[in-house]
Specification:
heterodimer; A: two-stranded antiparallel ribbon; 2 strands; 71% helix; B: mainly alpha; elongated
């Protein structure tokens, strides 16, 4: 233990005297802070945008509620609208599905810039509508990628580790006093291990110091403590993997330059070549879909449903929603054509849900393939794990789509049952609608 | 100088590892160029199938009201360019499907990245990935010890005393490595040219790519050998070169791209949508509401046909109103999308200017540009698709107005012959000659770097200490 501590002390002096290493560490810290700030900016931007949307929705809600209170059932210039009918009240109930950013977003922006995080929901909506597009952004910037904290950890930290470690054991070889080291230390492996341990502890310490303030600012320490700890664990484990690889490189005793070359080659292989190859194979195996199945459902199949006679719409809806038979329209032999025709979104929703399932399962096949490569692609594994913890990966947005679908379902269900029951909408009922349609995505 | 280059090559050939590595690189480059073409072709097949599928639906439309057909709409599927196999550029980030319909300009959706988990931060293993990231690193590995090891063994002094100026020595050693890089580069270009059906534009683009990469490699090798001479040891040279490589290829592109985004911020989608909706409903100048415009148009048309009411018109006024609204909407779109495009182009220019201190930025920009996969080509696709949409909707509205129906007759239908007479959207990729002006800054920066590297070696190398 005494030897170990003395090696750590010696290593600290070695590190402090090497301006190249200290400057590299400072540069890494600067990059990591820059990345954290980028993530935090996006986190704040999304929060502000969502708050703006919600305020706008509240304003629209109050407007309609006031109209209902005053008995103004048709807005000025729109006599065809009757706010006391469920159809129009639901149409006028502003509903926006939002995906609030996770407090852990500063650590991993992930795929957040490639997906939309809010969407207006109506009874005619679907989870692949074009208004669920990502934010307006420069595609070349997105291609180059954002320097976020996860990028700093996954790609830059191994480079920093190379800079810190490449001459550990190698310098002694270069200056030809490696034999002397051998004489002074019974085990070269332990000597190397102790020196590596210093840098490992140094990097972990730096990472924790960088991570904690942002966790405190975003509230992650309080609200998402276990997720934060998961993130820290992944980070520590990831750094450990690189140190283990580099430890074995340095065991070979080939000199600093040779060690640096090998380390850079490993970095190149694990960070660029391997993920790039997997990406290419995945694209060959699963080419980008042009979503013709969705287009067909959204257009041709929907048009066919719109052309159906009222009786067919009614009977199909009764099959999909057997409970409708207990409603007024369900029991009556003479049906209100307008109500039934206005309910066709129930059929369209089912059609779109089936298509969405096909698309999601197609995407899942590609994801399964990507996951199957994690065994030999550690960078890919950790990248998606960090993104998952920060809720900025594909599945977080897939969950968001599921939430949107559940909102559409609620809207359609309310429309069907309340309009078939010929309910009259009051201010209170309208406000209930608004509350009922809200999403509770975290 | 020729002798030094030949000696270096002989030395390279003597290193068995390097020979194996070269064979491996040539094979890998051939393979991935071929795979890149294969992937692009597979994508193109998908795009063509989708296009044919949607066109078939349009051509088999049953008799329908023209305005109904405008809502039914069409789709533009973004094709991949022939050189997508070399450099994919922004294609995996941008959407691929654009719905074209009346009243509204949709956003392009369904990008490749939105269809799966994240895979690689540096893109697919295409020739561009190897040519931009891996090969420069290989050149650095080959170059870092070229002069410093001679310095360490004292051979450098001997060579200089024998009459070889250090500048010439550095230049010759750098050229020997540069020729090696050209070998790898030519492999990619030859495979690409052989496997692609080359039209003139494609050949021009490929040639320009070759020149741009050759220029970048020239800069990298010259600076690498220069630093190898300038710095005291192998390790110092390698450390410095790796630091420069990281700075150029990893740090600066990301940081500068983000900075350009901050300099010229784009509106959020919500802000953009609200502004468009406001303009569309209130009028561009804010005091010309839609209803007022409609009334003015009505009076104008009634006067033109010398009648008192819409019922007396021999045409369908609804079609005229819809087309007028469409044209008004187009103005709104031009204004807002024009402003966005302007910002995007400013961002692009700001990024291109970073080529002054980072040649990698220039290389990246021209690589995407010459491959036809950069943002400018993407914007060109959107522009052509929008022009098609405007023509399509105009034809449908004109048919509604002048095809034989009367105002208010929404049940009037046109038959399938009319729909088939409307041509399908066909994207014509712009020629490199028409686009070349956009890459002027990049090319200028690369040329400046080539001159700077030559200047530094020629005029300062002789002052380097030989020990």
């Amino acid at each position: 233990m005494k030897d170990f501590i003395s090696i750590l002390q010696y290593e600290f002096r070695h590190f402090a005297r090497s301006s190249f290493k200290t400057v590299s560490l400072v540069l890494f810290v600067a990059a990591a802070v820059y990345g954290l700030q980028n993530g935090y900016d996006l986190f704040r931007k999304q929060q502000v945008e969502i708050a703006g949307i919600q305020a706008e929705n509240d304003e629209k809600t109050n407007e309609v509620a006031n109209q209902l209170e005053k008995g103004e059932i048709s807005p000025e210039g729109a006599p065809w609208i009757n706010l006391t009918t469920p159809f129009w009240a639901i149409w006028k109930a502003p509903t926006t599905a939002v995906k609030p950013p996770s407090p852990l977003m500063p650590y991993a922006i992930g795929q957040a810039e490639q997906f939309g995080y809010y969407k207006s929901v109506t009874t005619w909506s679907s989870t692949f509508d074009s208004d669920l597009a990502e934010e307006i952004a420069n595609p070349e910037r997105l291609t180059t990628g954002t320097l976020d904290f996860s990028f700093a950890v996954l790609y830059l930290l191994p480079i920093l580790a190379i800079i810190l470690l490449f001459n550990i054991g190698g310098l002694e070889k270069d200056l030809r006093f490696d034999q002397l080291v051998q004489v002074n230390n019974r085990s070269r492996k332990k000597w190397l291990l102790a020196r590596f341990a210093f840098y490992f502890l140094l990097l972990i310490g730096v990472l924790l110091l960088l991570m904690l303030p942002y966790a405190a600012i975003t509230g992650a320490l309080k609200d998402e403590f276990s997720a934060f700890m998961e993130l820290v664990s992944y980070t520590v484990f990831y750094v450990l993997i690189w140190f283990v690889i580099f430890y074995f490189v340095n065991l070979s005793k080939r000199g600093s330059a040779s060690q640096a070359l090998k380390m850079v080659a490993v970095w190149l292989l694990l960070c660029i070549v391997l993920p790039g190859s997997i990406h290419q194979v995945a694209s060959l195996k699963y080419p980008t879909s042009y979503m013709t199945d969705y287009i067909d459902a959204n257009r041709d199949e929907t048009y066919k449903l719109w052309d159906l006679p009222t009786d067919s719409i009614r009977s199909r809806l009764l099959v999909l929603y057997p409970e409708l038979s207990k409603t007024k329209q369900g029991k009556d032999a003479l049906t209100n054509e307008e109500i039934i025709n206005d309910s066709s979104s129930g059929l369209v929703n089912e059609l779109m849900k089936n298509t969405a399932r096909t698309i999601e399962s197609r995407n899942e096949r590609k994801n399964r393939f990507i996951r199957s490569t994690y065994v030999f692609n550690p960078v890919g594994f950790f990248q998606n794990k960090l993104n998952a913890v920060a809720r900025s990966d594909y599945y977080a947005y897939s969950q968001f789509r599921a939430d949107i679908q559940s909102m559409i379902d609620r809207k359609v269900h309310t429309l069907l049952f309340d309009s078939w029951n010929e309910e009259t909408v009051t201010k209170e009922r309208y406000l209930q609608y608004v509350k009922h349609f809200k999403n509770d995505t975290k | 100088m020729k002798q030094i280059i030949l000696n270096e090559w002989k030395r390279f050939l003597r290193v068995r590892l390097l020979t194996y590595l070269t064979v491996l690189f040539v094979l890998v480059l051939t393979l991935i160029t071929w795979l890149g073409i294969l992937q692009s072709n597979a994508q193109l097949e998908q795009q063509l199938a989708a296009r044919e599928h949607v066109r078939k639906q349009w051509e088999t439309l049953e008799a329908m009201n023209p305005h109904g057909a405008a809502h039914y709409g069409s789709y533009a599927f973004k094709p991949v360019s022939s050189l997508n196999g070399i450099d994919e550029g922004v294609n995996h980030i941008t959407g691929n499907v654009l719905r074209l319909e009346g009243h509204v300009q949709n956003e392009i959706v369904y990008s490749e990245t939105s269809q799966s988990l994240s895979v690689s931060k540096f893109g697919k293993l295409k020739p561009s990935l190897l040519l931009q990231y891996v090969i420069p690193l290989l050149l650095i590995f080959l170059a870092f010890g070229l002069v410093s090891s001679e310095k360490e063994t004292g051979r450098l002094k001997l060579l200089v005393f024998q009459g070889a100026p250090l500048s010439k020595l550095i230049l010759a050693k750098a050229l020997s490595i540069w020729f090696y890089s050209l070998l790898l580069l030519t492999t990619t270009v030859l495979v690409q040219t052989a496997l692609n059906n080359g039209d003139t534009d494609l050949l021009q683009r490929t040639f320009l790519l070759l020149l741009a990469y050759a220029a970048y490699y020239y800069v990298v090798t010259l600076f690498a050998v220069y630093l190898s001479a300038r710095l005291r040891s192998n390790t110092a040279a390698l450390s410095m070169l790796l630091a420069v490589w990281i700075l150029w290829t990893i740090f600066l592109p990301k940081i500068w791209g983000h900075t350009a985004d901050k300099f010229y911020p784009l509106p959020s989608r919500q802000e953009f949508k609200t502004a468009m909706q406001d303009d569309r409903s209130k009028g561009i100048d804010g005091h010309n509401p839609a209803d007022k415009r409609e009334e003015e148009l009505k009076q104008e048309v009634l006067a033109m046909y010398k009648v008192d009411s819409l019922e007396q018109l021999p045409i369908n006024f609804d079609g005229i109103v819809m087309q007028a609204d469409e044209e008004y909407g187009n103005q709104v779109w031009d204004r807002h999308f024009g402003a966005n495009n302007m910002l995007l182009q400013k961002q692009k220019k700001a990024y291109q200017l970073s080529g002054l201190f980072n040649p990698f930025a220039s290389l990246q920009s021209v690589s995407m540009g010459f491959s036809g996969t950069d943002m400018l080509h993407h914007l060109d696709f959107l522009r052509q698709a929008e022009n098609y949409r405007r023509n399509l909707i105009k034809r449908l509205n004109n048919e509604h107005a002048y095809g034989g129906s009367k105002t208010g007759d929404w049940n009037w239908k046109v038959d399938n012959v009319f729909f088939r007479s409307i041509k399908d959207f066909e994207y014509k990729s712009p020629s490199i000659t028409s686009m070349s002006g956009h890459y002027f800054i990049d090319l200028l920066c690369l040329i400046a770097w080539v001159l700077l590297a030559t200047f530094v070696v020629t005029f300062t190398a002789n002052k380097i200490r030989l020990t």
